[in-house]
Amino acid sequence: MEQARAEVAALTVAPVHSMAGYSRTKFPHWAAQGKNCDTREKVLARDGQSVQGDAACKAISGTWFSVYDNATITDSSKADADHLVPLANAWRAGAWQWTTEQRKAFANDLTHPQLLAVSASSNRAKGDQGPEAWKPRRAPSGAPTPGPGPM
Q1: Cα angle at 117 between 73 and 100, to 5 degrees?
Q2: How many C-beta neighbours within 10 Å does residue 6 have?
Q3: Rounded distance, CA 119 to CA 61, Å?
Q4: I want to staple 71 with a disulfide (CB 3.0 to 4.6 A). Which of 66, 77, 106, 126 is the partner?
Q5: Which residues contact 34 (CB under 8 A, 6 or more apart)?
Q6: What angle do CA 18, 43, 132 make, to 5 degrees?
Q7: Residue 49 β-bridge partners
Q8: Residues of the chain whose pLDDT is less than 70?
Q9: What is the C-alpha to C-alpha distance for residues 138 and 71, in angstroms, rounded to an integer?
Q10: Do 125 and 57 form a contact (C-beta atoms < 8 A)?
Q11: How far is it, in rounded angstroms, from Cα 136 to Cα 125?
């Protein structure tokens, strides 16, 4: 724990950049991932249980658990692949300096914990707020209560 604190204390915090020039299109996302699949569908298949896809690789059935709001989702249209660090947040944090290929790699990263299947409603509540500004509200009873608040 002390090592982690020392490493965090040593980090340099850069000033937040403006949104000037930002567009989601500068982060080519949901890139092709082979066999008709794109990144979103790969996330849904990875994070769900008993996920069945159609010939176009679209999830048509399965079960997903959304950690943001304790919701169990059985309708794939109500599941989203969320960027834990939203694209706009990444832009403000320095992605404005990246090449298009770097932004594409970030937006489609299946290796690091950047993408997560969650309920569409909680993802909409989060919007482009980053982890420093938005914390999911998870009801102990399991009832969905998305939005800013303590975990």
Answers
A1: 150
A2: 9
A3: 15
A4: 66
A5: none
A6: 35
A7: 63
A8: 138-151
A9: 9
A10: no
A11: 9
CA distances from 42 to 27, 69, 117, 126, 149 (A): 18, 22, 10, 22, 29
Residue 63 and residue 66: Cα distance in Å, rounded?
Answer: 10
Per-residue pLDDT tens digits for 22-32: 999 999 999 99
pTM over 0.90: no
Percent helix, strand, coil in the chain, to 5, is: 30, 20, 50
Instruction: Find the radius of gyration of the CA atoms of the chain.
Output: 17
CB atoms within 10 A of CB 36: 13
Structure-token pair, residue 33: 């991932």
Q: How many helices and strands, by DSSP H and E, does the chain display? A: 5, 5
Look up residue 84 and give its DSSP letter.
S
The one-letter code for the residue type at 111 is T
pLDDT in tens, 73-102: 999 999 999 999 999 999 999 999 999 999
SS3 59: strand
